[in-house]
Amino acid sequence: MKRKKGERLKKKHFKRPAPKRPSNGTAPNPAVDAIRYLDEWCAQAKGGAWKFAKSRQVYLLRHAFNADVLPEQHFKKLVSYLVGLPEGAARAKTIEQARAHADGRLPQQPKAKDVSNAAAPAAEPSSGEEPTASAAKDVERERAQLVQKRARRILKALGAAAAS
């Protein structure tokens, strides 16, 4: 097609495809997707297919210290994944956050929504009683200790000293 002098071709506008949704109509669960991503990463050593996904990595790094989102068996996989994390901003930020958690400087992370395999709190009230203030403090103390323990494990895996 020939253009006349000074005439511009019209740009064709393409619509982006809609994101894939599960066939059952439910909304995607980022915690389940992140755990599936870790499982695929572990399976790649056995010849499985795995593809890097920045959004999954960000989710895992953001929730690495939260046992409600990432149970212990998956946390072990995450530590192995972090060993291979290349030098850069993600690794540096992970080390910085782990140091802060190990020192107890960061508050407990909020729970993620729609987590199907959440860890049960250690001190639940029996027979439908309301939890007491001391029981709630015990649960918070145990959660803080777990966060510190996870932070130390991440620092050890990444070869970073706990003290900055």
UniProtKB/TrEMBL annotation:
Region listing for Disordered, in residue ranges: 1-30, 97-143
Span of domain WKF: 36-100
A Pfam entry, by short name: WKF
Superkingdom of origin: Eukaryota
Compositional bias segments (type: Low complexity): 118-136
Biased composition (Basic residues): 1-19
Protein name as annotated: WKF domain-containing protein
Organism: Diacronema lutheri
